[in-house]
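From the methods appendix. Each design record in this collection lists the tokenized structure first, followed by the designed amino acid sequence. Records were kept in a plain field format so they could be parsed without special tools. The example shown here is representative of the layout used throughout.

RECORD:
FOLD TOKENS (121 positions):
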């Protein structure tokens, strides 16, 4: 006794199936250095330390070192803390081969740096 779905019923069924699929997406955290919707936007987690000439360095959890700066976020008060930074990756690397990031958002992860984050120069 199969019954055919009406056009509206079929549309509703498709809508519900799509909503369930969206709700079942994996919400686990991605890599510590991951691009967001804009390919130049990066979100990085690591230990923030002082640098030269009002620049700072982030020893990212993936082992990379980033030279970071910001006109929007006060970075100096977070030196020595584990932070998550979001910003725009700048095109040129530094003379030391480090990537550069203009920071637009900072989240403090902890008030110290974890020992598993490499402290390189």
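DESIGN:
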């Amino acid at each position: 006794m199969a019954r055919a779905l009406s056009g509206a019923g079929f549309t509703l069924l498709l809508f519900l199936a799509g909503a369930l699929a969206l709700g079942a997406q994996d919400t686990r955290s991605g890599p510590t250095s991951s691009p967001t919707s804009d390919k130049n936007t990066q979100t990085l987690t690591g230990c923030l330390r002082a640098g030269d000439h009002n620049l700072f360095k982030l020893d990212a959890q993936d082992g990379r070192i980033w030279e970071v700066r910001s006109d929007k976020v006060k970075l100096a008060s977070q030196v020595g803390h584990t932070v998550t930074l979001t910003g725009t990756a700048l095109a040129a690397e530094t003379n030391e081969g480090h990537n550069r990031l203009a920071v637009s958002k900072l989240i403090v992860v902890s008030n110290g740096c974890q020992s598993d984050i490499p402290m390189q120069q």
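APPENDIX NOTE: The two ends are 74 Å apart (CA to CA).
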